[in-house]
Amino acid sequence: MDGTVRFTDVYVDDDIVDRAASVLRSTRYVKGPVLEEFEAKFAEFCGVDHAVGVSSGTAALLLAFRSAGVEAGDDVFVPGHTFFATASPVLSLDANPVFVDVDPETYTMDPEDLAAKAATAENPTAIAPVHLYGQPAPMDEINDIADRYGMAVVEDACQAHGATYRGERTGSLGDVGCFSFYPSKNMTVGGDGGMLVTDDAELAETARRIRNHGRDESGTHVELGLNYRLDEMKAAVGIEQLSHLDDWNAARAAAAAKYDERLGEMQGIETPTVADDGSHVYHLYVVRSENREALREHLSARDIQTGIHYETPAHLHSAVVEQMDETPTLPQTEILCEEILSLPMHPRITDEEIERVCDAIESFVGVPA
Ligand SMILES: Cc1ncc(COP(=O)(O)O)c(C=O)c1O
């Protein structure tokens, strides 16, 4: 079969284009009713009282940390195995990221390592579990540790729109949740965008204020903020995309089940482990191989796109290393980053494409074990 098996795919239809065009024609581009509608729908989707649309997932995290009271010198626990943007807002507030290792099976924050590090921290203030690849972190254990030290829990749900943990949606599992609508995510707004969600009315109000230059209802700038707003046109795209999200997540899960079935039999390939207490929305379908580089080249030679999320652990990027007194060692994170490979995954991937990827992997590893 010819053609490239694409790693990801973005959906656009006439409804999306028409809704965005109607905002363009209205000439009301910011701070309007379309964003309010998107926020209300997204809050309902997550099962929370408040949603605050912002300019990116990174902005959501920054506003969440600030609104939850993180200040210079505070310790914020973040996993080593994540995108840089979980940690960079912490550093930009002059707070200290304390990097925690991940569970070798699920790749989410390891509660044991978290508990050990929290016990010796000077100013334990917040925990930022990441629902990595679309799988919720072990929130019961993390919330217990947060309660023990009076810490806030800021969920980085940037890869996990719609995933559930013990029946509840991500974003509703801690004090505040953060989402990204970057185009490759499970839903987008047609460009960069993000959302902060919470049940805490005061926290939501603070985030809304910081999003808009720290300005209160009376128009006074009562604290330092910048412009982190989400445009009306993007909100319009978001409303349409959100209406498809459950179906798209189901299609991702079905594609993952097909991958699991074939790849689970292959020697030297480790397929994702899903914890019993959650659902996985497969933002990424990530396998492990000790021959990752050779496997990647083998797939590339057969026109199969892949990705690596992430090649460098968050705590080993030079921008982080230079700001920390000591660079921690996180054994599970560091070995993972050498072995992981993200396979093509999106709601419209076909059975033939999945078969082609699996055939190519089989020809790399040899016959089924
Ligand atoms: C885990 C994680 N955190 C944070 C972000 C930052 O989101 P954004 O790219 O919208 O700023 C992303 C997305 O790229 C992410 O995957």
UniProtKB/TrEMBL annotation:
Keywords: Pyridoxal phosphate. It comes from Haloprofundus marisrubri. The keyword Nucleotide-binding does not apply. This is Aminotransferase DegT. GO terms for biological process: polysaccharide biosynthetic process. The keyword S-adenosyl-L-methionine does not apply. Belongs to the DegT/DnrJ/EryC1 family. One of its GO terms (molecular function) is pyridoxal phosphate binding.
